[in-house]
What we know:
The structure holds two protein chains of two kinds.
Chain A: H1 3-21, H2 28-35, H3 39-45, H4 49-72, H5 78-95, H6 97-109, H7 125-140, H8 149-168, H9 180-191
Helix pairs in contact in A: 1-2, 1-6, 4-5, 4-7, 5-6, 5-9, 8-9
Chain B: E1 6-11, H1 17-23, H2 28-34, E2 36-39, E3 53-59, E4 67-68, E5 71-72, H3 73-82, E6 84-90, H4 92-95, E7 106-107, E8 110-111, E9 121-124, H5 131-142, H6 156-159, H7 170-174, H8 215-218, E10 240-241, E11 244-245, H9 254-266
Helix pairs in contact in B: 1-5
The complex binds iron/sulfur cluster (2 copies).
One iron/sulfur cluster binds next to helix 1 and helix 4 of chain B.
Amino acid sequence: MSKEEKKLEIMKTALNLFAKKGFYNTTIADIAREMGMSVGNMYNYFPSKESLAKELLIYTSKLFGEELKKINEMDISTKEKIKKIVELYFKKAKEEPELVDYFMRVYLSNKEIFSNGCEGMLCVSSFVTEIMIFFEEGVRKKELKNQDFFAAFGLFMGYLGGLVFLYREGILGKDIEEYIEVVSENIYNALKA
Amino acid sequence: MHSKPKVLWIDAVSCYGCSHSFYNYPQIKEILNKIDLIYHPLLPTKEFEIKSSDILIIEGAIKSNFLRLGFDLIDLIAKLIKLSRKVILIGTCSVYGGMFGEGILFNKEDKGKFYKCKDKIISIPGCPPHPEWIAYAIEMVLNDKKILLDSENRPKEIYSYTSHMGCVRNEYFEWKVDAKNFGEKEGCLFYEQGCQGPYTHSSCNKILWNEVNSKPRAGTPCFGCTEKTFPRKDLFKTETFMGIPANIPLGVSKRAYLTLAGVAKSLTNERLNKRLIDEDN
Ligand code: SF4
Ligand code: SF4
């Protein structure tokens, strides 16, 4: 197994533990134990829990960024793109809930961990850049209303985040995938030109 | 003694700003001494006649059913081009259409009526072009020097630059620090105030105006006056789509530009966030 593959494995293990025990309650020793590695060896891969957290964030952002890029490059209408993005997000929330949890809970609610080297867009740039391109092209094609970026971004991501939160709390009456259609429709109606 | 090269300067639909720009060339007398100016609309010359010339200079745009000197403008230009050895198009009107409509070589983005004469033509766009650019083209032709031209027949020596190159606000651009008002020393005018410097072909920040300044240096946006898209609307406002600049610097993909801009925005250059000259200290 290459060093990169091993790192990925450690990150996935860490993700699970963060989701189960919370970020602060998980130690490097816990992760090492779960991996069947010595703590000393762990440090060869990640010098600290913070650096692991940071790389995880970059990894998650890239993963979403690459998927979004594929959608951005499709020759379809903005309305159809919205549906693809919602689908991507909800499916990921179902298949890899730890990943989405990490992005929403650990990153967004523990910003202090990321204040050194992950300021602003630094670690989430792959994801944010693609979202920007999605919005910019939608307006350029006159399919979306030209407005403040964050007003649109908040509406889109906040809504998705909210739904995933309800889903993870077990409050949604139906499977989250059943919401793809209606949520996409609502987002489109709210943002269209 | 050899006779001096004949230069015929014709005005199409023009505001004469291009002529006036040329008058500001400090060594204009030397040029005028070297040539036989057989016609100019404003300078004292002989009566106009349709004649052959070594250099035909055209200022202004073309228009159908427009009379000039008793001739239909487009017919007149066609004849003069035919009778000339080299043609220099002065000003954005003449090259692309600019303020007044249709250009000689181009009609905005499309090929113009005289595109077929491309081989003879040198384009000096600008509204107006810098006097030195005009003088450069004339001198090069007078001295029989080869001018390297780009695909729109602009001298590479002048138009390979963007007006952004050499602007004293470049560091503010790099670190994404906006100018809050016009005329301030601090900040870049790209994000809000409409500066088109990063995608405008011109050497305004290399060959300064009146040898002292340029629009963006002084704190006014570059209007992109050398481009085929000139004039755009809302020159003092950056066009944005969802807050993202609709036009990005030449040569970079939108994805690459947004990534870099995001990174720069996430970091701070303390020095550039302060007054440049802090009078209280
Ligand atoms: S290019 Fe500008 S300065 Fe020259 S004639 Fe046209 S409007 Fe006037
Ligand atoms: S003001 Fe204009 S020309 Fe100057 S750095 Fe900013 S974008 Fe470039």
